[in-house]
């Protein structure tokens, strides 16, 4: 029978990753449920230990109580682009992933031919040199006021999660979604927190292994620019406040 700590840690991993006993069993290639393993009736096989490492970077030594580091390689999870596209002169070009294409992006992330159907261009501007860039269309309102629905962000590839800056915006490609968020790595935590600028959307935590690619937003393409400046809006607001004050002061 496994020692209690190992079983406790096995259960902890499953719950932390958000899997039911049946889902976890299917992922690990064992019988229909992990219930017997968790009760100590079935041995935690070497195959399962290997799968936990391969799929989730779980440290086998931690599992057996010989280490305090739950994850191996978690800080070095590579989020480098799976495919880099080039033009006819072999120069990196910028593929544009519109909202419709974004729905299929995570599943086709390593398929070179899939990228060839997307529009691509080159921007001869110094800010877009010496790195790989990709354009993504913004969906939804979770990044208001900075990014509106339908705008495009142009973003630079990041190699490691450790390279993220809490003050920047990122395109985060998960296993099933493409999101535009702030990315926060808390000290002493293996989790990564994704934060929306629109405060009606709560932040949520993910595991590093769930991330396929990260792109740092460095600019955006916007539409419908009008001549109302922020200072103009501020002045309007001040004027209406003054008017309101004077009305309140008037005797009834």
Protein architecture, described:
With about 250 residues, the chain is α+β, with helices and mostly antiparallel strands. The chain is built from 8 helices and 9 strands. It has helices spanning about 5-15, 20-30, 35-40, 45-55, 60-65, 100-105, 110-115, 230-250; strands at about 95, 120, 135, 150-155, 170-175, 180-185, 190-195, 205, 210-220. A 9-stranded mixed β-sheet has the order 2-1-3-4-9-5-6-7-8. The termini are far apart.
**How many helices does DSSP assign?**
8
Alpha-beta content class: alpha+beta
Largest sheet composition:
9 strands, mixed
Poorly predicted ranges (pLDDT <50, ≥5 residues)?
none
Keywords:
252 residues, 9-stranded mixed beta sheet, 8 helices, 9 strands, extended
What are the SSEs and their pairings?
Layout: H1 4-17, H2 21-28, H3 35-39, H4 46-56, H5 60-63, E1 94-97, H6 99-104, H7 112-116, E2 120-121, E3 133-137, E4 152-157, E5 170-174, E6 178-185, E7 192-195, E8 204-206, E9 211-221, H8 230-249
Parallel strand pairs: 1-3
Antiparallel strand pairs: 1-2, 3-4, 4-9, 5-6, 5-9, 6-7, 7-8
Give the structure's gist in a few sentences:
The chain has 252 residues and is of the alpha+beta class.
